[in-house]
Amino acid sequence: MAELPIPDVPPARCSGRFTISTLLGMEEGGRGPYTPTEGSSCDSAQPTQLSSSTLCTRTFGYNTVDVVPAYEHYANSKGVGDPRKGRPSLADLHSILKVTGGLAVPIASLASPGHAAGLEEAEGEPGRDSEPEPVRFGWVKGVMIRCMLNIWGVILYLRLPWITAQAGIALTWLIILMSVTVTTITGLSISAISTNGKVKSGGTYFLISRSLGPELGGSIGLIFAFANAVAVAMHTVGFAETVRDLLQEHNSLIVDPTNDIRIIGVITVTVLLGISLAGMEWEAKAQILFFLVILVSFINYLVGTVIPATAEKQAKGFFSYRADIFVQNFVPNWRGPEGSFFGLFSIFFPSATGILAGANISGDLKDPAVAIPKGTLMAIFWTTMSYLVLSATIGACVVRDASGSLNDSVAVGSPGCEGLACSFGWNFTACAQQQSCRYGLSNYYQSMSMVSGFGPLITAGIFGATLSSALACLVSAPKVFQCLCKDQLYPLIGFFGKGYGRNSEPIRGYMLTYVIAVGFILIAELNAIAPIISNFFLCSYALINFSCFHASITNSPGWRPSFRYYSKWAALFGAAVSVVIMFLLTWWAALIAFGIVIFLLGYVLYKKPDVNWGSSMQASSYNMALNYSVGLSEVDEHIKNYRPQCLVLTGPPNFRPALVDFVGTFTKNLSLMLCGNVLIGPRKQKMPESRLMADGHTKWLMKRKIKAFYTDVVAEDLRSGVQMLIQAAGLGKMRPNILVLGYKRNWRTASPESLEDYVGILHDAFDFKYGVCVMRMKEGLNVSRVLQAHVNPTFEAAEHPENGTGSRAAPGTAADPTTLASEQQASTIFQSKQGKKTIDIYWLFDDGGLTLLIPYLLGRKKRWGKCKIRVFVGGQINRMDEERKAIVSLLSKFRLGFHEVHILPDINQKPRPEHIKRFDELIAPFRLNDGFKDEAAVNEMRQGCPWKISDEEVDKNRAKSLRQVRLNEILRDYSRDAALIAITPPIGRKGRCPSSLYMAWLETLSQDLRPPIILTRGNQENVLTFYCQ
């Protein structure tokens, strides 16, 4: 096993990894693994024979191949069952040691396919050139400053004073706190998701896609990247408009107002692109510069509020801090078409967004799990405080209406003067009544600049806010888009995923973002596109919150965020509020955003990308399946809810595609289908094959669009393997009740033991209360030889080529599941439209109705929908009308829609002599020819060959045998052009009917028929009812 004895010798110094020869040295020469030998050392360069490298430790007092826990063992973990570097496999620890080339090695590791590759990789590491370390940022520089700059914008300078005048300080604070509530909840959700595992580059897209899966993640990633690209244009135009206004004030326009915006905008975005292309380090320095400019402008404003107001400022409504101004501005004073609470809320809310700027460069952070929560929440806190302070301070200093004229100064208490300014010596009554005031909080957007100590610094702050937001979006869009391109969820975008330099900069993505931004800058009118951008960002917030909620309620063991200060219900509330705000902002833009998300979602659902990210959707699917399966166990069975749940003995499903297609046709979206395979051979030899092939067979079924499960068992023989499947297959009420298998065409030439096994399987199915369905096609079912010759030489011919069950793998071969799933799909009759043919049902014995039910379900499918179903029953020639009416009445009560019923009065006629002779020749090789010997002598003769038929058994079953011959004649007469024949087969009594005789019956009944024939026998319990309860 894995633990090896060590002698009482002093341990040598251990300095790293040991070879297997060192670890297992005691097995060979009796020397201790740490005993120095000539030409050997602890760092032996001899190649290891383990499937993965191991560490040499004596932590527990003995030498072992086992390794202690280490970070490297988990760093590259992907899916359950995938190999991991550094840790020995279970086979290395568990398999028998074998001497190979003087070394004692685990047998399983000798055949390890990944061993050679892993060895080459390990040997190549010392000589590998060390790449330069990429630039990484901490939580302050990488997240907090970046988020604060993106949250602050022109609304802080130009709109917040006006909102304060309209809504009053109290409701303005409510608007701010409502907005911040949404962003804070989203920040908590981001913190939880980003601390639930290692976060790579891709930001918002990475967080959503790895949590909710590629469908929602891909759609949000694409529109989020586009929204950021357009946001670059929006912020740049905001900057260009401010510069244009300054030029207008000094009569220095370049061309005209509109073209000036275009010229300044293109030049500005080109400069920002140059900063971005210079690298993240330069971009971060530029952001810090903008941050300092905004801080200086904010301090400049606060200083200006305490400086005594000059006459010019008083004429414009500024009187420093006054309690009565604060009281008047504390309550709302709605004006204009936008004068409503939700109208102002929709104007302010975009200024609270921008919290994803730090998460969007997650690949450039030193520790995203620490930086994203800390930096995002701190940015929300400080920006919120700045908004609250600004609205309170400016609301306590500036009146709502002012004329700006120095001539409006009056003595305090002058008659005819109305308004708060009268008590300060100013009369703004005329312009206030006429609503023609140019200054004051309600009329002058530049109130901050007027209040500040030095006005140009406020302008510099506006420049810093717009340019920093544009730069953040210019960096975010390519970073998110690069991750989306690498995941290859959408076509034609992979070109932009290539990274350059030590930070893997998406230069092609930068250029694409630049082109999009320039295109929208040239429009110079973003009022129409801006609401859509806001809705795209809100879509992201809603899905981030929903991701956190969904991951929490699935109770997945993998959901273990180290950030604990979140609530799943708060996250759900945040998702709902985000959707509501989308419609409050602009309902038509919300509909457009949802339409685009749904379209992209549908595309990814249709394409079904081959990715596995362990999303919460997978966990939710498991939860739902588990809950419904357990709940189904509490439901009592009823005939009305009977469903044919099939265990199909396909062997490898790709060997018998017709059998798979037949059952898949009538069980699709209706009932359980389980493809069973018996791997015959020693368990130790077959278990690796079972693990390797199960995934490939499942993918093959999915590619063929068959909704079925695949399972296999390892057994010493076919019958015992099928018994395992019959007893153990399924879960709760989701258990098979019908055994479906292919007809054994080679029963006459096969070994007698396999013949006994095949018929014994049918007996076992009836013993376990299963229905049985045997399918025979003229050309056979097994296409394994064709696959071997032309497609995928994976398996040898099946041991039982036509019984639809066991298989033996070719020795020394290992099939690749990917190759198996991508092999050419064989076409079958059940994949083509049948046209206006017939499905003929020979309901000869009442088996509970299964013979009727399966063709009925088949006829409901589109490919078989035009087929006419005919029912044939046995009868007497003198009672044909009565018997036909009785069967038609019964079928009408079953509501199957079968109206064409035929009575077979000649079913009891004697078959033609040549057909009787053919049957006798068929069973001749299997007869004992015991003559008139007594029973004891006959039993002794057949003791070693129970499949033989005695003369007495031939005579006893003569009538039954002739009935099968006659039925075959009838089938050939009536159903030679049918699309499908379904017939009730005879049952051979266990212990009384030899297997060869029973197979002769089935052979005679179904031979020489062109259409597929389904021999269906229920378990004698009702599967059809005409009662309502």
Helix-strand blueprint:
Blueprint: E1 3-4, H1 20-23, H2 25-29, E2 63-64, H3 72-75, H4 90-94, E3 97-100, E4 103-106, H5 107-110, H6 115-124, H7 139-151, H8 154-158, H9 160-194, H10 203-212, H11 214-249, H12 257-277, H13 280-306, H14 311-315, H15 323-330, H16 341-348, H17 368-395, H18 429-434, H19 447-451, H20 455-487, H21 507-523, H22 530-553, H23 568-585, H24 587-607, H25 616-633, E5 646-649, H26 657-667, E6 673-680, H27 683-703, E7 709-715, H28 718-728, E8 738-742, H29 752-767, E9 771-776, H30 784-791, H31 817-821, E10 838-842, H32 850-859, E11 868-874, H33 880-894, E12 900-904, H34 913-923, H35 935-941, H36 951-956, H37 958-974, E13 980-983, H38 995-1006, E14 1013-1017
Parallel strand pairs: 5-6, 5-8, 6-7, 8-9, 10-11, 10-13, 11-12, 13-14
Antiparallel strand pairs: 1-2, 3-4, 9-14
Helix pairs in contact: 7-13, 7-17, 7-20, 9-15, 9-16, 9-17, 9-22, 9-23, 10-11, 10-20, 10-22, 11-12, 11-20, 11-21, 11-22, 11-24, 12-20, 12-21, 13-20, 20-21, 22-23, 22-24, 22-25, 23-24, 28-29, 29-38, 37-38
GO molecular function: ATP binding; sodium:potassium:chloride symporter activity
Subunit structure: Homodimer; adopts a domain-swap conformation at the scissor helices connecting the transmembrane domain and C-terminal domain. Interacts with KLHL3. Interacts with IL18R1; this interaction is increased by IL18 treatment.
Family: Belongs to the SLC12A transporter family.
